[in-house]
Amino acid sequence: MTSTGPTTGSGSVADTTGSAPRQVRRVAITSAIGTTIEWYDFFIYATAAALVFNSQFFSTMSAASGTLAAFATLGVGLVARPLGGIVWGHFGDRIGRKKMLVASLLLMGIATVGVGLLPTYAQIGMAAPVLLVVLRLLQGLSAGGEWGGAALMSVEHAPPGRRGRYGSFPQIGVPAGLILAQLVFLVVSNTTSPEQFAAWGWRIPFLLSIVLVVVGLVIRLRVEESPVFAMLRESRSRSRAPIVEVFRNRPRELVLASLSFIANNAIGYVFLAYLLSYGTQVLEVPRNTMIIVVIIGSLSWLASIVGGAIWSDRAGRKAVYLVGSVLLVVWPFPFFLLLNTTSFVAMVGAVIVLTIGLGLSYGPQSALFAEMFEARYRYSGASFSYAVGAVLGGGFAPLIATALQQAYRTSSAVAAYMVAVAVISLVAILFIRETHRPEAPARLS
């Protein structure tokens, strides 16, 4: 894999062979399962914020204001991501990718189970929303380092010419985690009465996390460390201050990578969090119907992530990104026109096209971000860029969308916001150097 961007430098390590096929498959599957569990934890919070947190933790507010407050706590977790990216990135570049992946999964599980055990506002007053914010911050810290480690483990173990393909495994954890979260909520909401769901049923998805985390930890402890990091350690080429070094040497790549992720994350959160609220509260579509629509869209998202990643091994990362980004620019207005019909078929069509754009602009990301930064500070560079893009784009997107809908009483305002963030990312991608030349020898350094 030849890079026309920053793939060489002091302490760089070339990896032209990847790991043994059996180990590559194990790492890929482990990355997918691990990130699915992490994102399940993250998304059950987003689902609960859309459906029940307004009544559980902000019960003194009106329904609309409570929803805004619940979505604000969703955004708080994203604010903690850059700090998580710095901390996990530093130690991931210093002591290894694998150890930090285990730590991130454990922290996410503790925070998620904590939400499931948290008393409501009616029980402990203002302490309830305060503790909710604290637990959400811990989720954000964990998520800030999770993606970078999982992505690098997959890409750095992968064989030449297939780093896009194997880099897609941690990416599919996002829609897979969302599907799992929605299915669990669907089962719980259909096996409890509305009163039972509001009283205790919503806690079940959070408490189930402890089982998933134990499974994830067992799986992650069985994989080998990244061969690239192992070479860095053996050659004594590790950076003493990776985040400082990446800021000094690759500021352009940090900025462009961060901006390139804004649209995908913002529009992704509109899909996974705001859509449920909009469908049930504004369009008055039954909750189960909206959950099914989101699940179908998530399946489309998953398929397009894999397809986009494989395509990027043939056409290049930037070309695939551009196709997905253009789709995210042109689709928001037709998206809401179809949703507003409340026709199930039309709504499904709307989310499928939207998630194809999301998948094509997310599938190649692991390989692209890994190829943009040298191995000695790759975890720090990739994690920080991903986290900053998430803060700028995704965390407050449901809150912004809800506020725009309430202020202007039209979905066109939300669509215009989606177009605006999509244009920002499209421009950033135009300035990113292609990192993968399919016809040339592979190189990851």
Automatic annotation (TrEMBL):
Q: In terms of one coarse class, where is the protein primarily found?
A: membrane
**Every Major facilitator superfamily (MFS) profile domain range:** 27-437
What positions belong to coiled-coil segments? none
Entry membrane topology: Multi-pass membrane protein
Q: Which CDD domains match?
A: MFS_ShiA_like (cd17369)
Protein localization: Cell membrane
Name of the protein in its database record:
Metabolite-proton symporter
Q: Which organism is it from?
A: Pseudonocardia parietis
